[in-house]
Write a structure and sequence with these properties.
- It is a single chain.
- The chain is 63% helix and 10% strand.
- It is α/β, with parallel strands linked by helices.
- The protein folds into 3 domains: 317 residues, Up-down Bundle (ABC transporter transmembrane region fold); 147 residues, P-loop containing nucleotide triphosphate hydrolases (Rossmann fold, 3-Layer(aba) Sandwich); 73 residues, Rossmann fold.
- The strands form 2 sheets. The chain has a 6-stranded mixed beta sheet with strand order 6-7-8-3-9-10, sandwiched between helices.
- Helix 7 packs antiparallel against helix 9.
- The chain is elongated.
Length: 595
C-alpha cells in the first residue's frame, strides 16, 4: 500500500533571521544583472556624495586665502561641486529605477509561491485554518519581502558604504582622534539600538498576534453574518473584537513609549559624538593644524553620516519587524502537506471507470473510527448509492475517493490502479462532484459554471445550464449569466446554488460522478426536474450517490446502508424494502415526513 507523508504543521521555534534572508536569494537570482548594476550605481552615488565635502573644503580654503587670483579658482570648484551633487542624485535615481523590478518581482514570486503552497496543503489544514489571521499573515509577509529589500538597498548598504569611505578619508588625512570618535559613536549607537530594539520586539509581536486575531474574528463574523443575526449576537461579536483590540492597544502604547526612550538614547549618543568631534576640529583650527575648510569638511562628513544614522534606528526596527512578519510566512511554507504524490506516481489511465473500495477503514483519531472495513464495487457505468444517518461517514467516502485524506487501512482503486499511486491532479480530473454544501466564487454565474472547464464555450455553458434546469432562471436575471453571485454565493438560494453546481459538473463531463446529497436544498418540484437531468447525466458515467432523500436513489443499481461507519445493509431498493431492516425504517420515516 502506498503511504503519504503525515500532516505536519511546523511548531513555533526561535527565528533564524539570517537563514530567512538567505531564502530570499533565489527570488533575486533571475535579476542578478540588475542587482549588480544597482549596487554599482549605489557605489557611484556615494563616491559623488563623499566628494562633495572634499570640494567644499577646497572652496572654503580658496575663499579664505588673500590672493586675488584665488577668486577665479572657486568658479571651477563650484562647477565640480554642482556636478557631484547632480551625479549623486542621478546615480541614486538610477539605482531606484533598476532595483524596482527586482523588488516587486521578488514580492510577486514570494506571494505566488505561498499561495501555491497553500493549494498543495491538504484538506485537514484548510478545515483547521483561521482565514482572517492567515490572510493578514500573508499580506504582511509579502509586504515584508519588499520592505526588507527596500531597507537593504536604500538604507543599510548605502550608509555602510558611506561610513567606510568617510572613515577611510579621516584615517588618511586627519588625526586618529577623529577616526576613533566617529567609529566608537557609530558602534555604540548600533549596539544600543540593537539591544533596546530586541527588548521592544515582544510588544510588536503581541501587536501582530492581536492584529491577526482581530482580523480573523472580524472576517469570521462577517462570513457568518446570517448566523450572527439569527442569534442576535452583534454585541457579542463586537465585544470579543474589542477585547482583542484592547490587548493590541496596550501593546501598541508600550511599543510607542519605549520607542521614545530609544530615540532619546540615540539622540544622546549622536550629540556626544558630534560635540567631541567639533571640539577637536575647532581646537585644530585654533592651533593652525587644520584649515577652516577642514573644519567644514569634518562637520559636513558628520552631518552626512549621522543624519542617515538617525534614521538607521528606525530602519533597523522596521527590518526586525519585517523579519518577524516574513518569519510567519516562511513558517507557513514549512508546514508539510498531508497528501503528496508518490515519487514514481503516474497519471491515472482511465479505461472503463470502475471504482473499488477494498477493506477501507478511516479515522481522524484512533479513538474515533469513521469508516470500518468498507468494501464497495462500482462497475463502470453503474450507479451506486450510499445512505445512512448524519455522521455515519457517507461524505467521507467522497473525500477519500478524491484523496483529500489517506485511508487508514485498505485501498481505493480506479480501473485496478491504486489512487495513492497516481498523481492527484489526474485523479481529480477524472471525477466530478456536486457537493452538499455548494460554495460559489464571488464572481459571475458564467464564471462559476465555466470553472469546471476554463476553455468552455458560451454554447457549452448554456447547454450545461439547460440540463441543470437553471438556464431560464439565469435568463430572467437583469444581468443574466453576468450576474455576480456574492460572497460564497449568498445572493442565491440553496437550490439555485446546487443547480449551478450540477451545471458545473455536467460541463466538466468526467468519467466518474459523485453526487453528495446533490438535491438536499431543492423543493419537491425542483427535485423531480433535477432528478431526471441527473439520471441522464449518470447514464454514461460511473456514479456514486450519497443521498439523504431515498426517493432520489430508487433507480440505483445497488444501495449501501452505512451505520456507525460500517455497511449494515446492501442491495437494490426493492430488496432492501422487502427486508424490513434499517433501510425500510428510513423509507417509512421519510414518507411520514412528506405526508
Amino acid at each position: 500500500m502506498v503511504r503519504t507523508h503525515a500532516y505536519t504543521e511546523r511548531p513555533h521555534r526561535d527565528r533564524d533571521d539570517w537563514n530567512n534572508l538567505k531564502k530570499l536569494s533565489p527570488f533575486l537570482w533571475d535579476y542578478r544583472g540588475r542587482v549588480l548594476l544597482a549596487l554599482l550605481c549605489l557605489v557611484f552615488a556615494k563616491l559623488a556624495n563623499v566628494g562633495v565635502p572634499l570640494v567644499l573644503k577646497e572652496i572654503v580654503d580658496a575663499l579664505d586665502r588673500p590672493e586675488t587670483q584665488a577668486l577665479a579658482l572657486p568658479v571651477m570648484l563650484l562647477l565640480v561641486y554642482g556636478v557631484l551633487k547632480l551625479f549623486a542624485s542621478l546615480f541614486n535615481e538610477l539605482r531606484d529605477a533598476l532595483f524596482a523590478r527586482v523588488r516587486y518581482r521578488a514580492m510577486r514570486h514570494v506571494g505566488n509561491r505561498v499561495l501555491q503552497h497553500l493549494y498543495n496543503l491538504s484538506l485537514r489544514y484548510h478545515l483547521e485554518r483561521k482565514t482572517g489571521a492567515l490572510t493578514r499573515d500573508l499580506e504582511r509577509g509579502a509586504q515584508s519581502v519588499s520592505s526588507i529589500l527596500n531597507y537593504l538597498t536604500f538604507n543599510i548598504i548605502p550608509v555602510s558604504v558611506e561610513f567606510i569611505l568617510v572613515i577611510g578619508i579621516l584615517f588618511i588625512g586627519y588625526d586618529w582622534q577623529f577616526v576613533v570618535i566617529t567609529f566608537l559613536t557609530v558602534v555604540v549607537y548600533i549596539i544600543f539600538t540593537l539591544m533596546v530594539t530586541e527588548w521592544r520586539m515582544s510588544y510588536r509581536l503581541k501587536m501582530n498576534e492581536m492584529d491577526s486575531q482581530a482580523s480573523m474574528q472580524a472576517v469570521d463574523g462577517l462570513i457568518n453574518y446570517e448566523t450572527v443575526k439569527y442569534f442576535g449576537n452583534e454585541r457579542f461579536e463586537l465585544d470579543r473584537y474589542d477585547r482583542t483590540l484592547g490587548i493590541w492597544e496596550d501593546a501598541a502604547v508600550k511599543s510607542q513609549t519605549s520607542m521614545s526612550a530609544l530615540n532619546f538614547g540615540q539622540g544622546s549618543i549622536i550629540a556626544i559624538g558630534v560635540t567631541l568631534i567639533m571640539v577637536f576640529a575647532a581646537n585644530g583650527v585654533v592651533q593652525g593644524r587644520m584649515s577652516l575648510g577642514d573644519l567644514v569638511l569634518v562637520n559636513t562628513f558628520l552631518i552626512q553620516i549621522f543624519l542617515p544614522l538617525g534614521f538607521l534606528g528606525i530602519v533597523y526596527r522596521q527590518v526586525k519587524y519585517s523579519l518577524a512578519d516574513m518569519d510567519r510566512m516562511l513558517n507557513l511554507l514549512e508546514t508539510g502537506p498531508e497528501i503528496v504524490d508518490a515519487d514514481n506516481a503516474k497519471d491515472l489511465l482511465l479505461k472503463e471507470g470502475t471504482v473499488r473500495f477494498e477493506n477501507v477503514s478511516f479515522f481522524y483519531q484512533e479513538e474515533r473510527q469513521i469508516l470500518k472495513n468498507i468494501n464497495l464495487h462500482i462497475p463502470a457505468g453503474q450507479k451506486i448509492a450510499v445512505v445512512g444517518a448524519s455522521g455515519a461517514g457517507k461524505s467521507t467516502l467522497s473525500r477519500l475517493l478524491f484523496r483529500f485524506y489517506e485511508t487508514s487501512e485498505g485501498q481505493i482503486t480506479i480501473d485496478n490502479q491504486n489512487i495513492a499511486a497516481v498523481t492527484q491532479r489526474s485523479l481529480r480530473e477524472a471525477i466530478g462532484i456536486v457537493p452538499q454544501d455548494t460554495v460559489l466564487f464571488n464572481d459571475s454565474i458564467r464564471f462559476n459554471i465555466s470553472y469546471a472547464r476554463s476553455d468552455a464555450t458560451e454554447a457549452g455553458i448554456i447547454k450545461a445550464a439547460r440540463k441543470a434546469h437553471i438556464h431560464h432562471f439565469i435568463e430572467s436575471l437583469p444581468d443574466g449569466y453576468d450576474t455576480i453571485v456574492g460572497e460564497r454565493g449568498l445572493k442565491l438560494s440553496g437550490g439555485e446554488k446546487q443547480r449551478i453546481a450540477i451545471a458545473r459538473a455536467i460541463l466538466k463531463n468526467p468519467r466518474i460522478l459523485v453526487f453528495d446529497e446533490a438535491t438536499s436544498s431543492l423543493d419537491s418540484h425542483s427535485e423531480r426536474e433535477i432528478q431526471k437531468a441527473l439520471q441522464e447525466v449518470a447514464e454514461e458515467h460511473t456514479t456514486l450517490v450519497i443521498a439523504h432523500r431515498l426517493s432520489t436513489i430508487i433507480d440505483a443499481d445497488e444501495i449501501l446502508v452505512i451505520e456507525h461507519g460500517e455497511i449494515a445493509e446492501r442491495g437494490s431498493h426493492q430488496h432492501l424494502y422487502e427486508r424490513k431492516g434499517i433501510y425500510r425504517t428510513m423509507w417509512d420515516l421519510q414518507l411520514q415526513e412528506e405526508y
